[in-house]
Amino acid sequence: xxxxxxxxxxxxxxxxxxxxxxxxxxxxxxxxIKFNKPDKIFVQYSSGTTLGLHDDEHYDKIIDSINNASKExxxxxxxxxxxxxxxxxxxxxxxxxxxxxxSGFYVNFSYSEPxxxxxxxxxxxxxxxxxxxxxxxxxxxxxxxxNDEVKVYVVPYYxxxxxxxxxxxxxxxxxxxxxxxxxxxxxxxxxxxNR
Length: 195
Known about the structure:
Order of helices and strands: HEEEHEHEEEEEEEEEH
Number of helices: 4
Strand content: 25-35%
Shape: extended
Radius of gyration: 21 Å
Helix content: 25-40%
């Protein structure tokens, strides 16, 4: 009788593990930055010409690609130790710094209204305890193979003196995020944005 109970308990545990594995293999975890749809998207290759996109198929494809670049299955995230990962906000400096040049693409999400910088599901507070607002998110899209740690530059909406920031080439903060932008890089090359 004890052997039967042990066998039933063992089979039940194995069954539960199989079900949990199947569920985790089919449920995604997304570590992407939370943002509103931009008013415009600008794409720039290296230091070349900047091209503007509005509400068209390329616009939607770029947003979808960025949203899906930090997605992985729960099972993969569990084994990689990234199940609780999230984008990290890094303060580079209290004074504005010029965004460095890249050999890849810049994808610039531009907003006409101030956007609240989010740290997960809560508003990010600056060094004075106030909400921090931005006008651009600039994604660096490089030709990588698999997940890589990338920077997303946050262009402030206001200068430190409270005046409106008119430059979209300076930042004081950036997101550090793990993402695979290779599909977006290939798409941008395929559509000729590197010319």
